[in-house]
Amino acid sequence: MIILAGLLIGAVWGASLARKRKGSRLDIAQYAVGFAIAFGILGLFATLIIDRFI
């Protein structure tokens, strides 16, 4: 669940950041995917760390 939340939050944040910077649709898509991947990986590591300690 943490991974999916990270993907969603990253995509929304990346898209909003690209819109603020007046990017085209492709820029918005690229930022959304890039941030989603980054936040998904952070969520994966958070899930693994939590799983190890519990």
Topology:
Blueprint: H1 2-20, H2 25-53
Outline:
The protein is built from 2 helices and no strands. With about 55 residues, the protein is mainly alpha-helical.
Structure description:
It is built from 2 helices and no strands. It has 54 residues and is an all-alpha fold. The protein has one domain. It is rod-shaped and about 45 Å long. The two termini are 16 Å apart.
Keywords:
54 residues; mainly alpha; rod-shaped
Q: Specify the helix fraction band.
A: over 70%
pLDDT < 50 stretches = none
Compute the average pLDDT.
Answer: 97
Please describe the biggest sheet, giving its number of strands, its sense, and whether it closes into a barrel.
none
Radius of gyration: 13 Å
Determine the strand fraction and express it as a percent band. Answer: under 5%
Question: What is the number of helices?
Answer: 2
Element string (H = helix, E = strand) = HH
Distance between the termini: 16 Å
Classification by helices and strands: mainly alpha
How many DSSP-defined strands? Answer: 0
Tally of distinct domains: 1
What's the shape?
rod-shaped
